[in-house]
Write a structure and sequence with these properties.
390 residues, 7 helices, globular, alpha+beta, 11-stranded antiparallel sheet, 4-stranded antiparallel sheet
Length: 390
């Protein structure tokens, strides 16, 4: 008997096929004419979300005509009228902002105190319950060579409250190609999907800069945010004299709503060199890069997309292995109304790694919101052949 989740999927698929308006977008830098990746594109009427790839390209499957908003932390926010998107490939140019023009804002309160207030306000304002329709993909490297790939369309039914966020995961479709070594702990390869939304909605990645000790380890500054005059940016940088694997943070927030709109963090190359020395013989996981983008739409405050890159070195048979995982999540749509589902349909594993492939359509091209580049497609095709041959 076909379960409710499969019926729901085919019903929504039929509606989408009937109503889709396909638009190809290529986003470029106005000054250099180079493509811009990781631009958040939002269809203002339909609330659909998309993300440009490394080629600056996105294919939009709109359910109805809509103007588009383009957001990137290094470029001015830009809105494009739907009526102008009438070419086979529509090139959109964004105006870069110059970081040197930023101004430091003097505040009565310490910037960390402002950040603490923003975190609490943002937690309380995140819309719960909500269904987040998410495209997730992960690339795996071993010793700088791509060895595995998986992706899927998932529904995260976000439940609970500000103090206890929970999520039920329902997988619509998924695929996995490539081979993983049996000696690598599967728990380290990928992200725990059953707490990833909880971590994002609790802003757990900011914990290290919210402690009292953080004031001694980091320099906090509030700065203007050139892409959007309604926002400010809190820049958090580890002090040079403080050693350790510490991240640099940027937190962008809406000054009127007092809500966090973007969080990014990165470990600099110099501190990564410290990591190599410190963890040469261990399998300790660390965060290399992290980004969360949030949006407010008609009173609904939600996660729009995320990226994480983690890496670790593991000694195996007296040889060091460098493992790297790159994870993207794109919220392609959302709804405050949750759909009904049976408990046995809930995905309870930590990762899609071991989930059997289940494909009904070319969702990676039609419904992902994040198009693979030509290079990525070649990698996926190669891994598929490698997988099939064994």
């Amino acid at each position: 008997m076909i379960n409710k989740l499969i019926l729901l999927f085919f019903f929504t698929l039929q509606i989408a096929v009937a109503q889709n308006l396909d638009i190809i977008i290529i986003v470029k830098d106005f000054e250099t004419d180079l493509p811009i990746d990781e631009v958040t594109i939002t269809a203002i009427k339909t609330k659909q979300g998309f993300l440009t790839n490394a080629e600056g390209k996105a294919i939009l499957h709109l359910t109805k005509p809509s103007d588009l908003e383009f957001v990137h932390s290094s470029y001015r926010t830009y809105i494009v009228k739907f009526s102008t998107l009438n070419k086979k490939e529509n090139v959109v140019y964004l105006e870069p902002v110059t970081q040197q023009l930023e101004e430091v804002i003097l505040t009565r309160e310490h910037p960390q105190e402002i950040l603490k207030q923003l975190v609490e306000k943002s937690k309380s304002q995140l819309t719960i319950p909500i269904n987040l329709k998410i495209y997730l993909r992960e690339f795996y490297k071993k010793n700088d060579k791509m060895v595995y790939f998986n992706d899927g369309l998932l529904n995260f039914q976000v439940l609970g409250n500000v103090k206890n966020v929970k999520s039920d995961i329902l997988v619509e479709q998924n695929r996995a190609v490539g081979l993983l070594d049996a000696d690598i702990d599967a728990n380290l390869l990928g992200y725990d999907l059953n707490n990833i939304i909880e971590n994002y909605y609790q802003f757990n990645y900011l914990d290290e800069v919210l402690t009292n000790r953080a004031k001694k380890n980091y320099d906090f500054q509030v700065k203007t945010y050139l892409p959007n005059d309604a926002y400010l940016r809190i820049r958090i940088v580890p002090l040079d004299e403080v050693k350790g694997i510490l991240s640099e943070f940027n937190v962008v927030y809406d000054t009127e709503k007092r809500l966090i709109m973007e969080i990014t963090s990165v470990v600099t190359p110099s501190r990564l060199d410290e990591w190599k020395a410190a963890f040469l013989s261990s399998s300790k996981v660390f965060k290399l890069e992290f980004r969360n983008v949030f949006r407010m739409e008609d009173g609904i405050y939600y996660l729009a997309n995320s990226k994480e890159v983690i890496g670790f070195e593991k000694k195996y048979k007296k040889q060091n292995r460098r493992i790297e995982v790159r994870n993207h999540m794109v919220v392609t749509n959302f709804d405050k109304k949750l759909f009904e589902y049976d408990s046995h349909n809930i995905f309870k594993d930590k990762s899609l790694i071991n989930k059997k492939t289940m494909v009904f359509s070319n969702y990676w091209d039609n419904d992902s919101g994040l198009l693979a580049t030509a290079e990525e497609k070649a990698v996926i095709d190669y891994l598929s052949k490698t997988d099939d041959s064994d």
